[in-house]
Amino acid sequence: MSMSVLYDAPGPKTRRNSAIASVIGAVAILAGLTWVFFILAAPRVNANGAEQPGMFDPSRTDILSDPQVWGAFGGAVVETLRMAGVAAVLAILVGILFSFGRTAASKWVRIPTSVLLEFFRGMPLLLMILFVFLLFSTGSYWAGVLGLAVYNGAIIGEALRAGINSLPKGQREGGLSVGLTSLQTRFIIEFPQAFRQMLPIILAQLVVLVKDTSLAYVVAYPELARTIKNLQNFYGSRYLFTLFAVGFVIYLVMNVTLSYIARYAAKRSGPKLGKVTPDNPKVPGAEGTRAITMPRGRSGYRDNSGGGFS
Amino acid sequence: MRLKKGLSISAIALVGLLGLSACAAETDTAEPGVEAAVPEFEAGTTMADLAEAGSITIGTKFDQPLFGLQGPSGGPVGFDVEIGKIIAASLGISEDNIEWTETVSANRETFIENGTVDIVIATYTINDKRKEVISFAGPYYNAGQDILVLAGNPEGITGPEDLEGKAVCSVAGSTSEANIAEYGVDLITTDTYSNCLEPLRSGNVIAVTTDNVILAGLADQNAGEFEVLSNPFTEEPYGIGLGLDDDAFRTHINDVLEASYDDGSWEAAWEATAGAVLKLPAPPAVDRY
Amino acid sequence: MDAISNAIDALVSITPLYMQGFLLTLALLAISGVGAFVLGVLIAAMRISPVPSLRVFATVYTEILRNIPLLLVLFFCAFVLPILGVELDFFLLAALGLTLYTSPFVAEAVRSGFNGVPVGQAEAARSIGMGFTQTVGLVIMPQASRMVVPPLINVFIALTKNTSVAGIFFVNELFKATYAAARDNGDVVVLTLVYAAALYLAITVPLGLIAGAIEKRVMVLR
């Protein structure tokens, strides 16, 4: 067990108290969940006093035995991943372009890129997808892909820029002094280091991207969220809860798996301890502080300058 | 081994070919009427182009009970869809060659303008504002805005006047929303009518309002939970959206609609879909504006 | 000429709707911003606390909320909570959903600020006999707070954009107004979208600039 500098190793009494508190807490949470379960299972009383069967009643879950429904869910997951996959590749490319533009020597490149980036970062993704959809008549698939690519590309670009900025000055100077051009230095020396350093943030942002495919439902792309909605419209609103619950589980499994893979990849290829880490680029004394906080590598959404959030 | 496999594959291919030609022969002989019924269109018209291409893209909604719903597999179903098939047939296009595109309310005009779809049949109310950017054939059905309440009508609502100051659910940006707003209701909006049902159940709103046919579909899907007042207070003629000022195409569709009133195909389309819940209405006169 | 007057007409007619939407977006941002901040700090505190069960709880909470789309979180608030007997109006339900969804991101931002405080600070505090609460409250927190601000502002920028999803769940915020306007003004769709974008940028760009400025100052202070 790892120790924290913030508090003493707990003694027997504290451990006992803490164990008791944990048990009480766990019991309280379990009791809460049980209560929720029973409320949901109990017959639903409408505002007019009419009773409807509870949420777990067979009349609300019978569609789950229909293979067609599962076929629709399967298709929706495929559509979701198909959109996310292409959007992820494009987002990284867009991010690379943005990061180069933002760090360019010429202000004629730098300033327009900054403005464009600010614009893409500040627009809601829903609005962006609708924008592409209505203006460029791309069809719903490409509207979603382009919206996701540009939006997440802007965030990844900022992360990469932060990575490039956080490199020691000597890297660039070294590159230039051996006769590489400015652009070559950027490509060959700085960028690979920045990319590696920011990999956890980029991977985490790609998980966010998968989640955000749900917003493409606004342009009627048949991904998971839209499919749940279409199924609900088709079978009737009494299946609302059932379909929601299934969608919840699918999203959770899909994203937790992807997060896990992302973390694993980040751990394998990310920067090693002792270097400036993406957890806290350019923070002096960062190496030792991990002890006072939570395990590293679990996160990566935070980015001191980029803001990799959704 | 390999030879065997190759042989069996070519055998399958052969059988497939035979099957195909048999099918083709069948349609040739069994349905000569359909082939012959396709009229020759003047070159350059939309009809000629579509008939030439042998396929048509139709925009419809996937969230309107009885009119357009997307099942877990296969194409959409509903009255709008049946009307689309009638129009496609008039161009010599079979059901299988219709490409259905889901239109959401915000993009119906855009889709027509930029040619993403050839026509839109999507519980699409004909109004003057829309006529500025697209043209309408039809109407093929006259709906009317109505009110959905919980079974037993606990609030005793008889018409839109009773809703003043009360919470009512509708869809944002719809003609229904604009119509009910005039009665001074406390409007709660979302993007699909079926979303309105939960608030109605839990008492957050006391009524849901939109076109009677959609409400009837919602009530039917949730048997016994809701009732429609059946007291429509507006007229919502549903038209078929097509490119602005494509008069030849509009006239053609209007002719097709009138023919379908006469030969019973309109009635058959109704009975196969909305007719399960609603009475057969008299077909509306098309508006050749 | 006709097109221009059309556009002006459309602008005039959608402005009241947009303004109402803009105000609700701001209100959502303010309420769920404060809520997410409080909850997020609490979660961050739980994740570094000495009590294992709190750490586990905070981790599970973060994992679940981070891995499901906002759409489903809001869906839960708008449709499932009323079944459980929660009687709030849809605006507050949406604010609650946004609060829950944003809180793990706040916790992460806070955590990254904590990461920035040299460990010697905590060691010094502990060595003069301060307990957990004192160390965190009196020594770490004040130093971490200024480094927390820029990432926190980024969280609020994301929150601003995320309020747009609340429109689906009965809140008349700006995106819903946009969607309705785009639907009703088929002839000037571009205008309706650009107008809405400008209003969103009016919130997010200043926030971004503030974050940038603070970031620069903090960097100098270090």
UniProtKB/TrEMBL annotation, chain A:
<dbReference type="InterPro" id="IPR010065">
    <property type="entry name" value="AA_ABC_transptr_permease_3TM"/>
</dbReference>
<feature type="transmembrane region" description="Helical">
    <location>
        <begin position="115"/>
        <end position="135"/>
    </location>
</feature>
<dbReference type="InterPro" id="IPR000515">
    <property type="entry name" value="MetI-like"/>
</dbReference>
<feature type="transmembrane region" description="Helical">
    <location>
        <begin position="83"/>
        <end position="103"/>
    </location>
</feature>
<feature type="region of interest" description="Disordered">
    <location>
        <begin position="275"/>
        <end position="310"/>
    </location>
</feature>
<dbReference type="GO" id="GO:0043190">
    <property type="term" value="C:ATP-binding cassette (ABC) transporter complex"/>
</dbReference>
<keyword id="KW-0813">Transport</keyword>
<keyword id="KW-0472">Membrane</keyword>
<dbReference type="InterPro" id="IPR043429">
    <property type="entry name" value="ArtM/GltK/GlnP/TcyL/YhdX-like"/>
</dbReference>
<feature type="domain" description="ABC transmembrane type-1">
    <location>
        <begin position="77"/>
        <end position="262"/>
    </location>
</feature>
<feature type="transmembrane region" description="Helical">
    <location>
        <begin position="141"/>
        <end position="160"/>
    </location>
</feature>
<feature type="transmembrane region" description="Helical">
    <location>
        <begin position="20"/>
        <end position="42"/>
    </location>
</feature>
<keyword id="KW-1133">Transmembrane helix</keyword>
<keyword id="KW-0812">Transmembrane</keyword>
<protein>
    <submittedName>
        <fullName>Amino acid ABC transporter membrane protein 2 (PAAT family)</fullName>
    </submittedName>
</protein>
Automatic annotation (TrEMBL), chain B:
<dbReference type="Pfam" id="PF00497">
    <property type="entry name" value="SBP_bac_3"/>
</dbReference>
<dbReference type="GO" id="GO:0030288">
    <property type="term" value="C:outer membrane-bounded periplasmic space"/>
</dbReference>
<dbReference type="InterPro" id="IPR051455">
    <property type="entry name" value="Bact_solute-bind_prot3"/>
</dbReference>
<dbReference type="GO" id="GO:0006865">
    <property type="term" value="P:amino acid transport"/>
</dbReference>
<protein>
    <submittedName>
        <fullName>Amino acid ABC transporter substrate-binding protein (PAAT family)</fullName>
    </submittedName>
</protein>
<dbReference type="InterPro" id="IPR001638">
    <property type="entry name" value="Solute-binding_3/MltF_N"/>
</dbReference>
<comment type="similarity">
    <text>Belongs to the bacterial solute-binding protein 3 family.</text>
</comment>
<feature type="signal peptide">
    <location>
        <begin position="1"/>
        <end position="24"/>
    </location>
</feature>
<keyword id="KW-0813">Transport</keyword>
<dbReference type="GO" id="GO:0005576">
    <property type="term" value="C:extracellular region"/>
</dbReference>
<dbReference type="InterPro" id="IPR018313">
    <property type="entry name" value="SBP_3_CS"/>
</dbReference>
<keyword id="KW-0732">Signal</keyword>
<feature type="domain" description="Solute-binding protein family 3/N-terminal">
    <location>
        <begin position="55"/>
        <end position="277"/>
    </location>
</feature>
UniProtKB/TrEMBL annotation, chain C:
<feature type="transmembrane region" description="Helical">
    <location>
        <begin position="22"/>
        <end position="44"/>
    </location>
</feature>
<feature type="transmembrane region" description="Helical">
    <location>
        <begin position="64"/>
        <end position="84"/>
    </location>
</feature>
<comment type="similarity">
    <text>Belongs to the binding-protein-dependent transport system permease family. HisMQ subfamily.</text>
</comment>
<dbReference type="InterPro" id="IPR035906">
    <property type="entry name" value="MetI-like_sf"/>
</dbReference>
<dbReference type="GO" id="GO:0006865">
    <property type="term" value="P:amino acid transport"/>
</dbReference>
<feature type="domain" description="ABC transmembrane type-1">
    <location>
        <begin position="22"/>
        <end position="211"/>
    </location>
</feature>
<keyword id="KW-1003">Cell membrane</keyword>
<dbReference type="InterPro" id="IPR010065">
    <property type="entry name" value="AA_ABC_transptr_permease_3TM"/>
</dbReference>
<keyword id="KW-0472">Membrane</keyword>
<dbReference type="Pfam" id="PF00528">
    <property type="entry name" value="BPD_transp_1"/>
</dbReference>
<protein>
    <submittedName>
        <fullName>Amino acid ABC transporter membrane protein 1 (PAAT family)</fullName>
    </submittedName>
</protein>
<keyword id="KW-1133">Transmembrane helix</keyword>
<feature type="transmembrane region" description="Helical">
    <location>
        <begin position="90"/>
        <end position="107"/>
    </location>
</feature>
<keyword id="KW-0813">Transport</keyword>
<dbReference type="InterPro" id="IPR043429">
    <property type="entry name" value="ArtM/GltK/GlnP/TcyL/YhdX-like"/>
</dbReference>
